[in-house]
Amino acid sequence: MDYMKDLLLNLLILLSTMLIFQVAVTDRYRSFYDKNKLKLLFFIAIFQMILAMVFTIQIQGQFIYDFRLIPILLGGLYGGPRVSIFLFLFLLAIRMPIGGAGVYNTLYVFALVTITTSLLSSMYKRWRTKDKLLTVMLLTILFSAASFVFPIFFMGFDFDPYFIFMFAITQTIGAVMIAFSSELIIKNHLLHMAVLKSEKMEVISQLAASISHEVRNPLTVTRGFLQLLKDHNIEPIKRSYYLDTALEELNRAEVIISDYLTFAKPHPSDINTIYIKDVINKAVELIIPYANHYSVRVLLDGKEDAPVKGDASKVQQCLINILKNGVEAMPQGGILSIRLDITTNFCYIHIVDSGIGMTEEEVARLGEPYFSTKEGKGTGLGMMVVFRIIEGMNGKVEIKSKVGKGTHFIISIPTIKI
């Protein structure tokens, strides 16, 4: 029974390291795992081998038995010949200084393991999980038995049949369990990557549909008015109106395309030290004529100023997008207030409207592609631009809103010292 405690301890150590590896590496650092699969496999196999050899069972002071076969066998099958050979050399470097007749046993058994895994690795990776587990089971039984052939038939050592049986069975169960865990880790990773790819394709599809729809409308209008201009008998006033309308529609198409390009390239391209109050003043000056059209009163508060790192034109674009949305949320008129608060490390821009407001679900979806609260009139690109630009400045956008009471945007941006 003392043997069983040591064997089960070996098995527990190996299973624990697999669990820790999955939680600490593959689930949290997926890109790192993708780039360094073979290196990670090699080091986890070495780590498992060392832990297995710390808790060993010594027979007559000559032979050392543990579950080092499992990481070497699976490391070779999943990693290929290079990993298999390096694991074999590392094992010899650890085992040979210990000495004893068991060195020769280790040499011939694990030489066979290295040769076998190197030959099977390329085929093994293409097999189904069921076939892989069956292969691991058969190979573990075979090599477990081989580890007793040399001492029994060539050196005349007498082993307890119970120990041989329990060692082979426990090691085989452990190898199959760890192989199955490895398959789950690989499949979960592939599934996660497939989901990410699917989500990216969906976003691209939605953006393409949005851009296509929004750009086609102004182009269609422009085409219609240009066709009307072919009439030489048209009145000068109408001609001027048609030209102005066509230009306005082309400008609208340009704005949509610019928003899309800003979303595709979120980080500000021209990073300079800017003073946030100046940017706010310019944005307010530009939005006031639009606000007057909706009978919206714009109030600006904040005498202090603060330097930040960013692109003035991009920050101004963010503010105009939010201010414009605030104005449009008050079709019957209202108050749009902008307040600037400065603290030691941050500046806070508060933009509050008294408009129709949003539900919690709508607030949570702001910034998603192709989502807009404008009932088919918007594309959602404006808010995506806002979130991306502020994130590129290491800032944050917080939104509070209640239906029928209005919306409160809080933009926080880190300040710098000059």
From TrEMBL:
Domain of life: Bacteria
Reaction(s) this enzyme catalyzes, per UniProt: ATP + protein L-histidine = ADP + protein N-phospho-L-histidine
Entry-linked PROSITE patterns: HIS_KIN
This protein's record includes keyword Transmembrane helix: yes
Keywords: ATP-binding, Cell membrane, Kinase, Membrane, Nucleotide-binding, Phosphoprotein, Transferase, Transmembrane, Transmembrane helix, Two-component regulatory system
Segments crossing the lipid bilayer: 7-26, 38-57, 69-94, 106-124, 136-157, 163-186
PANTHER family the UniProt entry points to: C4-DICARBOXYLATE TRANSPORT SENSOR PROTEIN DCTB (PTHR43065:SF46), SENSOR HISTIDINE KINASE (PTHR43065)
Protein name: histidine kinase
